[in-house]
Amino acid sequence: MQPCIDPIHRFFQDFAAERPNDRFLFDEEESYTVREAYEVVLSLAAQYSAAGIGEGTPVALSASRTVRTILCFFALQFVGAQAVLLDPRDSACGFAFTMKEGALCAGGRALPLRFAPGGRPDELAEDSRAPTVVIFTSGSTGEPKTVRLSQYNFINNSLDTLDIGGYFPDDVNIDIVPIHHVFGLALIFTAVVARHCIFVPHSVAADDIVRSIIRFRVTRLNGVPSLYLAMAESPLAGQITSLRFGLIGGAPCTQEQFARIEGGLGITLIPVYGMSECIGISCGSFRDGAHERRTSVGRVYSMNTVRIAEDGEILVRSPAMAAGAAEKDGFLHTGDLGYIDEGGYLRVSGRKKDIIIRNGNNLSALAIEQKLLRMPQVLDACVVGVNDEKEGEVPAAAVVLRGGAQAFPLVDGLIKPEMPKYWKAVEAIPLTSSGKPDKQKVRALFSDASR
Asked: What's the start-to-end Cα distance of the chain, in Å?
């Protein structure tokens, strides 16, 4: 498949022309058909243009997970502005244009926006390769890093997943992932490219999500393992009958957890592997067998090129890759370790920075976590490396123990170098805003361990 250079407004226009009266975007209170949403986005784009927002204009968008935020985001894409997506809890100081809760602030003056059809900008942006999405990722250091993405990046990632993602015209995709993260943005773009509906629930508490899936006959979702697991353990999960497929990514998931989710929710999970700097690297297929889906991150997307470096690092070149993300060799160096097996499936074995060197032994924090998670008394676990005067570095484990268990498990599959020297029982593994284990906070739990 060759990359497409069409901008998102053309995909949206074609969608509206083909299925104008189908529901496209809704929450518990308001709903828009495809045609209504398209006309509202055009109207918002005209209002932005009148306020002086055009191609390349940075606009700080407080990315609350709402229907109106999604409409505002698409309108910024239509005029080619740079949507700087902020966590709703963060400040938007320093921007000439800011947007929050349906109001545009320009030059210190609040301009209420009309979410109704009427008007369109004089012109729509045509350069799909121009950076129009700015997100921030904390990476492994906790320091924010700016990532600039384009419509070209998102659209081609969406096109590459159409044949393998199990999409249907009557899909209702529930948006439970943050909009200011790449996984949430991919869902929004794919809804237009694949032509299906988005439901935006008010609450993302696990039981509330399950209730919404039952009530609104949701058929698919994107999610991280921690949220899927919480949903599968909901007492209401057995009432779900509408789910077909779900993309799962963002954090490691053991085979046992994978099976527990699929059984609890009656869903077929499709593993996806990507990152802020490259939206999609590989993806499973709904046609894959359970073993392939549970043990790999699928095959490399058709438009991508993946190379495994001598040290095992995964390198990728892709139309879904952010501007400036490639090294001098033309590849993005992911920082992940892995290999491609005989069947063409990519398998991620850990992070380069998560390798713990103990007395000269290279240990994978991910491998230790997976072994801990196989133990019946461990509900969740996160392993980090902690400096040690004698051994150089040692594993430290934060664990959530099941059913009030008291003893920390030190057997059942762990070899001697893998045995954590330090451990803490916690009520829950701290997570980032995208639902990934927050290794910085976990490491802070052991800040006094080596003193």
From this structure: 56
